[in-house]
Structure formats: C-alpha cells, structure tokens
Amino acid sequence: MHRLLLCFLFFASSSIAQTKVDTSESAQPSPLQNQTKDSLFLRVQRPDQDTLKVFTSRYRIAACTNPDAQTFVNGEPIKVYPSGAVAGLIEVNVGKNILCYTVKSPSGDSLRKEFVLIRPEPLKTSSYDTLIIEDTLMEPSQDVWLILGDVLEVKFKGSPGCEASFDIPGVASGIPMRELTPQEANRLGGIYVGRYNIQATDKAHDEKIVFHLKKSFWSREKAYSKGFVSILTGELPRVAEVTGRLPYLNIGLGDDRLGGAKLGFLEPGVRVEITGKVGSSYRIRLSSIMEAWLPVEFAKFLQPDTPLPRSLTGSIAAVSNGSEDIVTLSLSKKLP
Fold first, then answer.
1. Boundaries of CATH 2.30.30.40 in the chain?
2. Which of 318, 227, 208 has its CA nearest to residue 280?
3. Please, which residues bridge with residue 110 across strands?
4. Predicted local distance difference test score (pLDDT) of residue 60
5. Residue 292 and residue 251: Cα distance in Å, rounded?
6. Chain-centre distance of CA 33, in angstroms?
7. Confidence at residue 217, expressed as pLDDT on a 0 to 100 scale
8. In terms of CATH architecture, what is 237-336?
9. Could you give the C-alpha distances from 271 to 8, 204, 276, 316, 335, in angstroms and in order?
10. Predicted confidence (pLDDT) at residue 179 exceeds the cutoff of 50
C-alpha cells in the first residue's frame, strides 16, 4: 500500500513539474511576436490622402508607430504615446504645404511619409465696380431630385449691393433672392440666397438653375448652376433593392474622412423607398418623420409599379441565452 502511494506521488510530482515546464515555455514570445514588436512601421490616419485641400489655419494630424520610436513632423520631434499613437496640430499656410512624418528606431532604422496640404486663398468680397457672378459657393452644386413639399435652396456669390433672382426653366422665373448681411456671411458681401417651395404641378428634368444679377437696366449678368434640378412629383417615390457589400445608411449629407455619420448597416435584399436625391446619395423614407441617405452604388431600382415596401408584423418571440436577450419579429418582407 505504501509502495503504491509512493508511486502515485512520484507520478503526480512528475506531472506537476511537466505542467510547470510547459506553461513556462508557452509564455515565451514567439519569433513572430518579437518581429512585430521590433519591426519599425508607420501608419498615418490623418491626412488620409496624398494631397488634401484644407480650409483652416490649423490641421489635426494622427498616426501610429512603435512606442519606442522617435517621431518627427516636419523635422520637429512629437510625442509618441505608450500605445504608439501620435497626434497633434500643425499650422497650415495659404498655398502649398508639405507635411512630412519621420520615425526612427533605436537601432537606427527610419521610415518617412510625405503629404501635400493645400490651403486656398480666403474668400474676398467681389468687386463693386465689375458686375460678376462667381462659381464659388454656388448652389445647387450637385444634381438634385425633388418632390412635392420639398424646398429648393439656391445660393451664389457675386458683386454686392445688386438685385438678384433665379429661374427654374419650365417651372418659375424671376424668383427673388436676398443678399445676406456681412454678419450672416462670415464678413463677406455679395452672398445671395433664395428658396422655392415645390408645388404639385411642377415638373422638371435635368434643368440648370439660371441666376440673374442686375446693377441697373443696362448692367446685368447671368450664370448657370453646376448641378441639375429634377422635380419628379408623380414619379417618386420609387422602390429600390439594397445591393452590394456592407450597404449602409447615413444620417445626413455631411462628410468626413470616414464617409459621414452612419445610421446603420443593411442586409442585401432589403427594399427601400426612395423620395429624392442629392449628389451621389438617395434620400430614403424610413417613416413619416424619419429619413436617411443611401449611397447610389447600394441601390437597384425595381419596376416603377413595384408596391412600396410595407409589412404587417407577425409574432414576436423573446429568448435569453444567459448573456443577452434575443427578440425576433417576423415580417412578410425585408424592411430597413
């Protein structure tokens, strides 16, 4: 009995010792981990393009590298956080600016990436003496689809102190525009704005807005918008099917380097109700009080007489898997 117990203790001790050795060996970093830790790298998040137009005097930069690397921006050292993150603000002059990231490892290796930031000349009030309508700030600058109840808003920059109006060919003409005060227009003069409420009888297909600026009976100027306007009351809403990889809805038309604020992602095959368009985004009606914007590459139009996507809800089930509750709602069609 004692001999059997001693044998058991011997094998148990050997097993424990072997376990300790295995654990110790597995804790050692692999050659790949060492390589990743020691390899010098530089990933730049801002700017995200080789050449970028900047409209402010200061620009926020962001990148990441090895935490132990020395980092320089335009030759000046910049702090590297323990995570390897690099961030800061740089001054941007009017014209062409070179932004150069340089990182150096303790062993002497180095990497360098260069970008160009272009800051345009600040806008100035147009000449009082020469009658002019400028392309700058002109709206609509993109193609627009509108329906009954929408408001068309237009704008242009021109000589201050004049009388301005605009036409929607085939719809209305001589619609008055108001010149904004310098307080409303960032200290600029000659910024004219106007609006038109779309009526039930209005129809237009790919029409350019015609702008008029009059200083006197003999002094007049005319210009055309860059974007085309279509008034499609009676043709919209239309049904489209969502397609593509990782389709998504945006909250609005605002833009940033990641593509704007996203409302959520959709599944291919979901049907949506399109009520308008601005530039490269369709306006999607989600409810009577909520809308979103879908990039055009994610939409495939169905036949004009396709019924609008509607569904009665079926049974609702709720189950718990211990860590979360799953609620299932059955619908007869795929809806956003």
1. 237-336
2. 227
3. 104
4. 94
5. 5
6. 36
7. 85
8. Roll (2.30)
9. 69, 27, 15, 22, 6
10. yes
Cβ neighbours of residue 161 under 8 Å, at least 6 residues apart? 128, 179, 189, 190
Helices (H), the chain: 2-26, 31-38
**Are 125 and 190 in contact, with CB atoms under 8 Å apart?**
yes
Amino acid found at 163: E
Cis peptide before 160 (omega within 30 of 0): no
Residue type at 34 in one-letter notation: N
Q: Would you give the end-to-end CA distance of the chain in angstroms?
A: 74
The reported pTM is 0.70
Q: Which residues of 142-166 are buried (b: 16+ CB within 10 A; e: fewer)?
A: eebbbbeebebebbbbbbbebebbb
DSSP for residue 53: E
Which fold would CATH assign to domain 133-228? Immunoglobulin-like (2.60.40)
CB atoms within 10 A of CB 69: 20
- Determine the Cα–Cα distance for residues 53 and 46; give it in Å rounded to an integer: 13
Beta bridge partners of 273: 239
C-alpha 211/C-alpha 154 separation (Å) is 9
Residues of the chain with CATH 2.60.40.10: 38-119, 133-228
Residue 129: the pLDDT is: 87
Work out the number of other CB atoms within 10 angstroms of the CB of residue 291: 17
pLDDT at 255: 58
Residues 206-245 have pLDDT tens digits of 999 999 999 988 899 999 999 999 999 999 999 999 999 9
Task: Write the DSSP string, 18-46.
Answer: HHHHHHHHHTSPPHHHHHHHHS--EEEEE
Domain spanning 38-119: CATH 3.30.390.50: no
Give the whole-angstrom CA distance, residue 44 versus residue 195. 43
d(CA 292, CA 148): 18
- Residue-wise DSSP of 189-240: S-EEEEEEEPPTT--EEEEEEEEEEESSSS-EEEEEEEEEEEE-BTTB-EEE
